Target: Glyoxylate reductase
Amino acid sequence: MPTWKVAYFSGVGGRPQVMLDNAPGELEVAVVNPALSEAEKIELCRDADAIVTSDITTNVLRECPKVKLIQTLSAGYDRMDLESILEMGIPVANNGGANAISVSEQTLALMIGISRNLMAQWDSTTRQRAWRSDLYQTDLSEVTDKTVGIVGLGRIGRQVAKRLTGFDTRTIYYDIEDIPEDVRREVKAAPVDFDELLESSDIVSMHVPLTRRTRGMMSDREFSMMKPTAFFINLCRGPVVDEAALYRALTGGQIAGAGLDVLEVEPSPADNPLFDLDNVIITPHMAGQSSETALRAAHFAYGNILRVLNGEGKTSFGIVEGSNVVEVWGNPLDDYAVTNHSYSLDQVKLLAPIAPPMLYAAGPNYRGHVEGMAARRGSPPVYPDRPSPNYRSVHAIVGTEETIVVPADSSGAVQPEGQLAVVIGKKARKVPASQALDYVFGYSIGNDISQRPWQQADRTMFRGKNCDTWKPLGPWIVTDVDPKGFRIIVRHNGEVWEDFSSADQIWDTATWIHELSNYATLYPGDVLWMGTQGADGDMFPGDTIEVEISGIGTLRNYVVGEE
Model:
């Protein structure tokens, strides 16, 4: 017997029979005609636990109190009022890249089709019955060995880049996100800024979502920067492109041609002047459609719906307000929307508040730390003459109330190091110290667990600092505070081991950001640990370690031995 009800709007890209044939037994699926009136939709969706659609109004959703998820079968959310829906506390999920292969294959088809002038060849041969193999020889070009610029290296952009490796192209990309190095290596794509991509590329291919930031991102200025021999490809969303500017570029010789699967208005009016151009190939927003896509989308959608309805694995950002946390959709470092879902802190598990692309750790940054190390060595203290950063493993990060695992072969002193954690909020390169704090998103708490004998024995401190679970971070991020006056306390089973102030740092937060950004670009989400005063006590399985920072909170973790 079905446990939950799903309303499936049949006009959103899936194939109704595929959706019905692949529905799990726990779900009762009703097909809804998207052309129905709002009143009729409400009647059909009123008891739904989940809705599959890419276009629904808040008027309908207000009458559907049981809905826990809106699942789309497409990659974008631009056809619905996403912010208002999220404020209602209803999460929205896309297709997880189910259409990425189909879109990437059609992208290459358009690249080849416009480069080889296939439409003109087809027209003269098939329609005009003229066998003219001599007609277009000078107008044809190859994709092989060309520079291809991909705007947006997400799921679809990566599939495009992956397929281009077979054409020996030089593939470059622009993305506002920091793409992991292993992904860049796999698809053989190099990052460049947007203007450089436009100026360098023989083919520019668009694969970005439609947002306030991307709407109209290709206009007169951008087309004027492209080579006159370059081709423009767009298979993401029509409004990403100023269509009038594209027409001017195509007719004015600024670019050589275009392959389009999307237009500003869909269906496009019959008098759209782009239809009259010989150097344009247009398809009717069908790139993501295939029998394989429909099957993948159905399996992904139903799997997602079951996970949500079963209460599995829901992870969200939130804003702490007193003893409650309000759920937000999106990433607080970028665009996000506050929902009306509020939970008691007792109802949620707090994960580490950020998954940093990079975790930097300050070297000795407190005089007391330098003096303590010197005393243990029996030598005079030597204070560093400039900031000396190091790295820590981002994979060793755990949140508050989680365990710190001591490896079975560890037989030496394992000690905590309570630290102020600085979270970078925007891209920073060669930032003056006077402006450095403008690049800070907020502050949290870190605990740099250290195994002293390993730290001394390993030249890179790999074991000594980076074992799994040895980088507790949390419990949350506090914004709009002054980092100079934090009191930092480390407790071992309730006993104070360290008590010091961030005002005692040798170099403050602004100086560290200035120093780091002089040599390495800092990206949103990067975290910098600001050093410690240094604790002498050892911790053992069964111990509780707390790091408290005034104005932020308490990071609490429990020490266990490896099984």
Observations:
- The mean pLDDT is 91.
- The first strand starts at residue 4 and ends at 9.
